[in-house]
Design brief:
The complex is a heterodimer of chains A (about 700) and B (about 300).
Chain A lengths: L1 E2 L12 H9 L6 E4 L14 H4 L3 H18 L2 E2 L13 E9 L9 H14 L6 E7 L3 E5 L1 H6 L5 H10 L10 H18 L4 E10 L19 E7 L8 E5 L3 H4 L2 H6 L2 E6 L7 E7 L7 E8 L5 E5 L11 E5 L8 E3 L6 E9 L9 H8 L6 E8 L7 H6 L2 E5 L4 H12 L3 E5 L6 H8 L6 E3 L5 E6 L21 E2 L3 E3 L8 E6 L4 E8 L2 E6 L16 H11 L9 E3 L3 E3 L9 E5 L3 E5 L5 E3 L4 E7 L1 E9 L14 H4 L4 E2 L3 H7 L3 H17 L1 H30 L1
Helix pairs in contact in A: 3-18, 4-6
Chain B lengths: L2 H5 L4 H17 L10 E6 L11 H7 L3 E5 L6 E7 L13 H18 L3 E7 L3 E8 L4 H9 L11 H10 L5 E6 L9 H9 L3 E8 L1 H5 L5 E6 L5 E5 H25 L4 E5 L4 H22 L1
Parallel strand pairs in B: 3-4, 3-6, 6-7, 7-10
Antiparallel strand pairs in B: 1-2, 4-5, 8-9
Helix pairs in contact in B: 2-4, 2-10, 4-5, 6-7
Classes of the chains: A alpha/beta (about 700), B alpha/beta (about 300).
Chain lengths: ~700, ~300
């Protein structure tokens, strides 16, 4: 039997205690009175074995128990470890994972991280293999295993470090969970391809382990056998921080109303923060000097305050709010962009009057309400009214409500030819010739349905207009009753596509491509004589969905977080799109690029595709939570964390052979876990001793 | 009655009353019915009997003539010799030997007083502490009780002193009840005892003992302090127990031998023994003495 921690055998000295106690207890502790000592003589405890030690069985049990506990702590193991350090076969596959998230931008942290990485790389021996990766929201390789293998042994660590030194902390969030899981996958892949002898996997995770780190995916992950994760925290001590966030979603923030009244921000102060008097004001790009009239706020540590941001002063250059007075500055800037309100002209062609509650126009007028970002302008034209050329060009969308004059249909044709979208609803069969002409067919028979009441029994969820309703909770259209509808033969129109059908099998909605444009034809009106469509909760979403589909409404948020992908849509032929990032970097986007990632906070601009689009990018709020996470958080989530820090280990172990031997022995002992048996035996002895002592005590009491 | 329960009664007089009344009620149901110190029994009148002793009340009830039969026509004089030395101030099971002895003395005093006998007291340690002459006046019992309640004192015990004092004061044939733990050398005890007995006085000896001092039942080594002298010794009780018991038995045998030589017996009372038993013992002793006397007469 050998021992992993033989120093604990010093605990055997504790065995002297019970012997002493057994002896000492023979000495009278107190003086008892007695009537007379005439029959008594002094008899001090004799030095014979019998008089010194009684209850030998109990004494023996107590000694045995202490011996077992001491042995358990000494971590005994049997036999010899099969892996020897000098064999040279024991190799490690170490993945050094360095945090480059925004919180590492705090002064000193990156240098500390580099030092840790250096220690982790330099302690590796010739047969070991290493890779260096950095991570924030995602992971990327800095120095690969192949480069490590190919380099001279003496220069491997230096080369890897040189590669790492080229990296800098960015602005993205810390996703430790994602990084750990990915790194383990990398290691596993290398284990399978790395050949024999590589069976010890190590991840050295160098991070500030801030509370705002995302640990998703760690719980319940199946960690491979033989993996060890060593945590190398870098920190600057318990520094406090105050952070700044907009309140509300991107939509609300960019609304004109909010711009007029000022916007609300939340200032959150860290519990360990020493400063509680903060100032909030606007700054110019690249500056931290507050301009205009900053406000002073008191936020006690651990609390948050919501306030209206001070009015923007200082001209167009001013683009960010700055929180002044806290201990950590990397997250103190908050950018903002407010889009101008957009006016959208919708041309409504109908002979109805909007006064009556039963008309389609009545419902259309009420559905197109002003939102924070869009202001609809409904231009109503009756059959006899002439359309001005400018009106047709300015209109973004057209709604055609039958019956209308031939003039109106001609205008619709022009509208479609311009590549725009027309939404038409049939109220009778009279539009058949105009529609046939528009669709480019000789004849398009339209007839009134005689089947009576009907419902929408089938919808094509793949169609872009209906796709948002595909979810079960939104997709129930069966409650909408249709009293009347018109039959139309979709197959007679080239390129037409039905997207909704009545229960009799007649198409309810049909998409008809005309020239460059598209027509959405409804075979029933939404007024009360035809259907309940306008009264249903589906009407307004459906209408807005048609407007979005036709490109009238474009959802363009103005606030993003660092790391988000901004959807910019595909470019059109012949136009040059320019992407301006903060700091004046401008790139020309290829036409196929439809998404662009934002990696740094600031104001971005996309120009060349119509009206220039501006948006603000800010840090993710979680990144501001720089207080350290609980030390055992990763262990709690099941990550096989190795407790021995790198530095301690390197300091303790003089040579790599000795170190390797120690590790091999520790691993060997870890597999046997002999200490558990010794501890279990000690507990058993304790139970027996307790029972015996109790029994002896009872016997003595009875005898007395 | 358990002595510990009895000792919970603070007032000595009440304690004595409890014992005596309990004893009486037990006695009336017991085969010892008719016992008393002097009063023996009724017997039918026979010609020649002194008509003074006719029980007229009984005659009134039963229409028969009875005479009360007395073994001794004169009233008894009794002296209680009570050891109140410091060695009596010991209790291992909650009952002080001194309290037990006091209660025994008080019980006897009350019992005899009720019988119309005169009771006196001599309490002692190495010298006489309290001396109350034998009387049978109203209020005398109260005085006795007050004297009995005196605390233990003294650093030693002299067993001869009270006997010698008794010899000085006794004029008539009397009864001496000697109550002590006899935890002192017996030298000098025999001579006054013999003198007393030779003078026709009766002596009843009670030895009060505590269970612990009987058995020396300390489980382990113990440091003991002599209550009287204050001397301390370390004692390995388990190893010394047998020798102690032997020495103590020898001492008791010596005491019994002394008493036996002078026609009296030693009655050992452990403090865990009910006091009624002591009283019964006392009456038995008296009865035997009476018979012995009669036999001698």
């Amino acid at each position: 039997m050998s021992l992993l921690a033989p120093l604990f055998l010093a605990g055997l000295a504790a065995m002297v205690a019970p012997v002493l106690w057994h002896l000492i207890r023979r000495r009278p502790q107190e003086t008892a009175p007695f009537p007379t000592l005439m029959f008594l003589e002094p008899t001090p405890p004799r030095m014979t074995k019998r008089s010194r030690l009684e209850d030998l069985l109990l004494l023996a049990l107590r000694l045995l128990m202490l011996a077992l506990v001491a042995l358990a702590f000494a971590r005994p193991y049997f036999g010899k470890p099969t892996v020897t350090a000098s064999s040279g076969e024991e190799t490690r596959k170490r993945l050094v994972l360095v945090d480059v998230s925004a919180s590492l931008q705090r002064p000193g942290l990156w240098d500390a991280a580099l030092e840790r990485a250096e220690a982790a790389l330099r302690e590796l021996t010739a047969p070991d293999l290493a890779e260096v990766w950095v991570f924030d929201e995602s992971m990327r390789q800095v120095f690969g295993a192949e480069s490590w293998r190919q380099g001279p042994v003496a220069e491997r660590a230096t080369r890897a470090l040189d590669a790492l030194r080229k990296e800098k902390p960015g602005w993205k969030s810390t996703w430790i969970g994602r990084a750990l899981v990915s790194s383990v996958e990398q290691l596993e892949a290398l284990r399978t391809t790395g050949g024999a002898g590589i069976d010890k996997l190590e991840v050295v995770l160098i991070s500030d382990f801030q509370a705002g780190s995302h640990l998703d995916g760690l719980a319940g992950h199946n960690w491979p056998k033989g993996l060890e994760v060593k945590l190398e925290p870098v920190s600057r001590g318990a520094l406090g921080n105050a952070s700044l966030q907009w309140i509300g979603d991107a939509e609300g923030l960019s609304s004109p109303g909010a711009a007029a009244t000022g916007q609300r921000v939340r200032v959150q102060n860290h519990a360990k923060s020493k400063s509680q008097e903060l100032r909030l004001g606007w700054v110019k790009p690249g500056s931290t000097t507050l301009v205009g009239k900053p406000v002073t706020i008191q936020v006690p540590p651990g609390q948050s305050r919501t306030l209206v941001a001070p009015a923007k002063e200082g001209g167009e250059e001013v683009e960010a709010l700055w929180l002044d007075g806290d201990e950590t500055a990397f997250d103190n800037k908050l950018y903002r962009v407010v889009n101008e309100e957009e006016s959208l002209n919708v041309l409504a062609l109908s002979d109805e009057t909007a006064a009556g509650g039963s008309s389609m126009l009545y419902f259309l007028k009420r559905a197109l309400v002003e939102t924070g970002r869009h202001k609809f302008q409904l231009i109503h034209k009756r059959g006899g009214e002439a359309l001005l050329p400018g009106e047709l060009a300015a209109a973004r969308s057209m709604v055609l409500m039958e019956p209308v004059s031939e003039e109106a249909w001609r205008a619709a044709g022009e509208f479609l030819a311009a590549g725009k979208t027309v939404m038409a609803a049939l109220r009778g069969t009279g539009a058949a010739p105009a529609l046939a002409k528009l669709a480019g067919v000789d004849q398009l028979p339209i007839s009134e349905s005689t089947g009576g009441d009907s419902i929408l029994s089938r919808l094509d969820w793949d169609h872009p207009v209906l796709a948002p309703f595909a979810e079960a909770r939104y997709g129930d259209f069966t409650r909408i009753r249709f009293w009347k509808h018109r039959k139309i033969d979709v197959s007679a129109i080239p390129g037409a596509r039905a997207m909704a059908w009545f229960d009799q099998g007649d198409p309810a909605m049909v998409e008809i491509p005309v020239n460059k444009g598209r027509m959405l034809l409804l075979t029933s009106g939404w007024h009360v004589e035809d259907s309940q469509l306008a009264l249903s909760s589906k009407f307004v979403p459906l209408l807005y969905r048609v407007l979005e589909w036709s490109g009238v409404i474009v959802d363009q948020p103005t606030q993003y977080r660092v790391g988000a992908e901004v959807s910019i849509g595909p470019g059109k032929e012949g136009e040059t799109r320019r992407w301006s990032a903060p700091g004046g970097v401008e790139t020309v986007l290829a036409s196929e690029v439809s998404r662009q990632r934002v990696d740094a906070p600031g104001i971005y601009q996309l120009s060349g595709a119509g009206k220039p689009r501006r948006f603000a990018v800010n840090l993710a709020p979680a990144e501001s939570r720089i207080e350290p996470m609980p030390s055992d958080e990763l262990e709690r989530l099941g990550v096989p964390v190795k407790a021995v820090p790198l530095e301690t280990k390197t300091a303790e172990a003089g040579s790599s052979e000795k170190r390797a031997m120690q590790e091999a022995v520790a691993e060997f002992e870890g597999r046997q876990k002999g200490w558990r048996w010794f501890l279990a035996a000690a507990i058993m002895v304790l139970v027996v001793e307790t029972l015996l002592a109790g029994w002896f005590g009872t016997r003595t009491a009875v005898a007395a | 009655m358990d002595p510990r329960a009895l000792m919970a009664i603070q007032n000595l007089e009440w304690r004595a009353r409890v014992v005596v009344e309990g004893f009486w009620s037990g006695l009336h149901r017991s085969p010892y019915h008719g016992f008393s110190v002097e009063f023996s029994e009724y017997r039918q009148y026979a010609p020649g009997d002194d008509p003074r002793f006719l029980d007229w009340r009984l005659y009134g009830r039963t229409d028969r003539h009875f005479v009360r039969k007395f073994e001794d026509e004169t009233n008894l004089r009794c002296f209680l010799l009570l050891d109140l030395s410091k060695s009596m101030d010991y209790a291992s099971r909650g009952v002080l030997k001194a309290d037990y002895a006091r209660t025994l003395a008080a019980t006897l005093a009350r019992f005899l007083h009720l019988q119309g006998d005169a009771v006196g007291l001599l309490s002692f340690d190495e010298r006489i502490r309290e001396a109350v002459p034998a009387r049978n006046r109203p209020g005398h019992l109260r005085r006795l009780m007050l004297a009995l309640e005196k605390e233990c004192g003294g650093v030693g015990t002299d067993l001869a002193t009270p006997l010698k004092r008794l010899l000085e004061i006794l004029k008539r044939r009397s009864l001496a009840v000697f109550i002590s733990d006899f935890m002192s050398p017996l030298d000098g005890f025999e001579l006054p005892l013999g003198t007393l007995r030779a003078g026709g006085h009766e002596v009843v000896v009670f030895q009060i003992a505590d269970p612990m001092e009987e058995d020396l039942d300390f489980g382990d080594t113990v440091r003991l302090k002599d209550l009287e002298t204050g001397r301390e010794i370390d004692l390995d009780a388990p190893t010394f127990r047998e020798r102690y018991r032997a020495k103590r038995a020898a001492h008791r045998q010596a005491l019994e031998a002394i008493c036996a030589r002078h026609g009296t017996a030693v009655r050992v009372l452990r403090t865990d023994t009910p006091l009624e038993w002591a009283l019964l013992d006392f009456l038995k002793a008296r009865r035997q003495r009476g018979r012995g006397n009669a036999a001698r007469m």
